Amino acid sequence: xxxxxxxxxxxxxxxxxxxxxxxxxxxxxxxxxxxxxxxxxxxxxxxxxxxxxxxxxxxxxxxxxxxxxxxxxxxxxxxxxxxxxxxxxxxxxxxxxxxxxxxxxxxxxxxxxxxxxxxxxxxxxxxxxxxxxxxxxxxxxxxxxxxxxxxxxxxxxxxxxxxxxxxxxxxxxxxxxxxxxxxxxxxxxxxxxxxxxxxxxxxxxxxxxxxxxxxxxxxxxxxxxxxxxxxxxxxxxxxxxxxxxxxxxxxxxxxxxxxxxxxxxxxxxxxxxxxxxxxxxxxxxxxxxxxxxxxxxxxxxxxxxxxxxxxxxxxxxxxxxxxxxxxxxxxxxxxxxxxxxxxxxxxxxxxxxxxxxxxxxxxxxxxxxxxxxxxxxxxxxxxxxxxxxxxxxxxxxxxxxxxxxxxxxxxxxxxxxxxxxxxxxxxxxxxxxxxxxxxxxxxxxxxxxxxxxxxxxxxxxxxxxxxxxxxxxxxxxxxxxxxxxxxxxxxxxxxxxxxxxxxxxxxxxxxxxxxxxxxxxxxxxxxxxxxxxxxxxxxxxxxxxxxxxxxxxxxxxxxxxxxxxxxxxxxxxxxxxxxxxxxxxxxxxxxxxxxxxxxxxxxxxxxxxxxxxxxxxxxxxxxxxxxxxxxxxxxxxxxxxxxxxxxxxxxxxxxxxxxxxxxxxxxxxxxxxxxxxxxxxxxxxxxxxxxxxxxxxxxxxxxxxxxxxxxxxxxxxxxxxxxxxxxxxxxxx
Length: 733
Prior knowledge:
Strand order of the largest sheet: 11-12-10-13-14-9-15
Helix content: 25-40%
Distance between the termini: 47 Å
Structural class: alpha/beta
Largest sheet: 7 strands, parallel
Strand content: 15-25%
Number of strands: 21
Shape: globular
């Protein structure tokens, strides 16, 4: 009997260098333990087939199906001019739908011999559309003979596990690799405290790993999933509970506003009354600011619910108490916009030290990377002396040169664009840890807030201020109904004719750098996908064609900051009719006169992003209109996503749709850090109860034993979750 490899044994020693290299590069699996935690996505039963009707576009899929027919065609091409080119078309079926497989050239011989009508096999490849039909080009396949000794052995049991796979490594090869390492599951140390495991009737970890990879019954799968979900939820919540515990031990200066200070003066000059929600959330924030340990609060609010006003009142409360407040914005456009709108809202209260400034006034400084040297020196001086009570800036605020007189509050706008390093660097600029308010306009379901922002208390603003107009949203199917697109441009002209303005949003800028990237595509890519539409191309086409005669301007991230600001100012002042832009306008851009937005290639954007973009129109008293242009076929998942966005303005509802359609890894911020999600089994939406219960258990465990001295296996699991790669993960939202 060979020795069982340890869980931290590198895969290259166990599986050989070639397989291990693919697993490391494409699946992020490095050790035996990593592979054991690479769980099947689903299971196939012999005789029961996947629904071909529900295949997602552009994704790598594995299906089990039967060959219905196979035809070999010959054709002439540049490589085979005499009509010697060969193409094998195989139709497979599973009862719910049919799918076309295509093989070309020399690659047709083996499948032509093996894929005879009636043959059952597993097929793996990337789903594409050709001639408006779904197809797999050159899929890998494994015949399911069911009689040959080797096949029966390999696919032992009635349930065939289907693993998340890649083009380089099919599901069945991952299955074979798992058979090799499965004996090591016996070595797995159990992170759950025994009392918790027994109290909740969960199977031990080694048993769960065996059952998830080699189930004999559906009950085995259920037992294993229930157990593995708890592991993930619990270890993650312990990490967050330890963070909350550590933060609660830190000292902070309590900041209470003066009854006759700048906050009171600001409230007196507001031309409207606060909504009930704004009042309630402000009270929660003021209560936190008055305590002697740092506030850690997440403020989430619908697009346009008045979060900036709530944040500004918190900042003024801190200025009242003798401190300074800093607001960190993700882009220069947004930092400049916040600075403009905050100084306008404050009026003479923002003119501290100037003639005509109010008695309790302060200065509002702006600090961005592209400022001129003199303006920058001036801003740095105002911060160091305490002359500026409020500063708004980009990452430039984090630089070593920036010194504060007394930093009391940090407001982070659009948290999902900042990692923990930036947040901590800014917090490190206070004499004592400053209070922290994190804002996001991406509505987050409660469980995600508990999972991603588990170290923060949450406040929600869900009322829109009075006077906001509803936004009508429609999908424009450009390929099916080109006249709908022509009508969209007419609608833009009509709105401009009424004195309003329009946005046209594209996924790409379209200068040379992008063009170079686009050239490296394979011929198959070319067939199924053209490059996304680009700002520079579309702006030119519109100005010459359907929007000729209107004032069309462009805005994108690669323009010089001064040019960007000038374009935004002209658009805000009504000196341009149509702004063709990338997503730089997604967050915080506020032009109440803009009433219509056309989003080109809308299927290339995420649900939350579309919702954010749409929030840029309908900000005044005239109703807003958002047109989602797409060439995707009616039945595709992308179109269903767009239909969901068009059908509701409720951001929380859309965030659920978004989560259900994406893998949790993206939700947990892995998109930014490029590492794989530590959630493999837990579904943040469906497993709300598990997450809530795990949070309670974790809080209890950490309160009783903050360093987890009595739970060594849990500490090991925690170290694995928080290895350097994932260190950012907890706060990447």
